[in-house]
Amino acid sequence: GQNIDQPTEMTATEGAIVQINCTYQTSGFNGLFWYQQHAGEAPTFLSYNVLDGLEEKGRFSSFLSRSKGYSYLLLKELQMKDSASYLCAVRATGSYQLTFGKGTKLSVIP
Amino acid sequence: DTGVSQDPRHKITKRGQNVTFRCDPISEHNRLYWYRQTLGQGPEFLTYFQNEAQLEKSRLLSDRFSAERPKGSFSTLEIQRTEQGDSAMYLCASSISGEQYFGPGTRLTVT
Lengths: 110, 111
Hints:
The structure holds two protein chains of two kinds. By secondary structure, chain A is mostly beta strands. In chain A, 0% of the residues lie in helices and 60% in strands. The N and C termini of chain A lie far apart (41 Å). In chain A, 35% of the residues are buried. Chain B contains no helices and eleven strands. In chain B, strand 5 and strand 6 form a beta hairpin. The A-B interface holds A 4, 31, 33, 35, 41-45, 48, 50, 87, 89, 91, 95-103 and B 31, 33, 40-45, 48, 50, 55-56, 58, 91, 95, 98-105.
């Protein structure tokens, strides 16, 4: 089975940097995904890590350490529109389904 | 490419009734997934198709749930004899490689 943990809520200030952590346990690892979900809307894809290291995409970066079962999503130059839930999801070896964490609700304040 | 579409967007039904939802994936995507999401939770996997073949199905999925993808394009998810616990957002996603792209979802309310 798989277990994914991420903080329930976080608050950060507009213009700042925030790091959202995710730890996971899985019997076989084949990729970690981050999605953004605004209230009442569908998740939208942000990033995908399958090898250790940092993937940068504009204001968003995602890091993976497979040996530690750990990932983080880094959001820079926060904007009010970044207020949303951020979902960490893991794909296991031999499967295409994603197992999601419960999500981290990020509130960006002025 | 208009993205993944789902129909209807909202459905209210009485307990015991059957409901059917439709998903149209992104046109060149051969993989299609159904998930269910309740408030405060992440999406929960239900089932997965590659072309017309249903290759994965959650062990948590009740026998009242069935999904089809007859021609490898659109898919339907049917829930028979709905229960109040079936109230949730039903999300469809499609992919051609790693990342999955989600549709807007169908919100089901069982009264």
